[in-house]
Design a protein that fits this description.
Layout: H1 2-18, H2 20-30, H3 36-49, H4 71-75, H5 87-101
Protein name: Gag1-like clamp domain-containing protein
Biased composition (Polar residues): 1-18
Region (Disordered): 1-30
């Protein structure tokens, strides 16, 4: 009987050590997932965007497009613009014009 009892104890020890539950408990304690791609993305984004706290806020600029400028004056002229028109200002101009013409809801 001693022989059977000792072998059953040995089987229990071996089976508990190799069981999926015991292995999972050991692996979760040791392994921590680190998303290296996310860390690299945040670092590249920080380089691209820069430190916003150090940037000086610019006062709003005067509009390049005059309030009296018409669609035809601006877009049908063959002469180059005197200075670059920011995209935001051009979009605002076009939306205002399209609303007046009933082309934009």
């Amino acid at each position: 009987m001693d022989f059977n009892g000792s072998s059953s104890d040995a089987r229990q020890k071996n089976s508990s050590e190799g069981s999926p539950v015991a292995t999972k408990e050991k692996s979760t304690e040791k392994e921590v997932f680190v998303n290296h791609a996310e860390i690299a993305w945040h670092q590249m984004r920080k380089q691209w965007v820069g430190n916003r706290s150090k940037k000086l806020e610019r006062p709003p600029k005067d509009s390049i497009i005059s309030l009296t400028t018409t669609y035809e004056d601006l877009l049908l002229s063959t002469e180059p613009f005197q200075q670059q028109i920011p995209l935001v200002e051009m979009v605002d101009f076009l939306v205002d014009f399209w609303r007046e013409e009933g082309l934009y809801d």
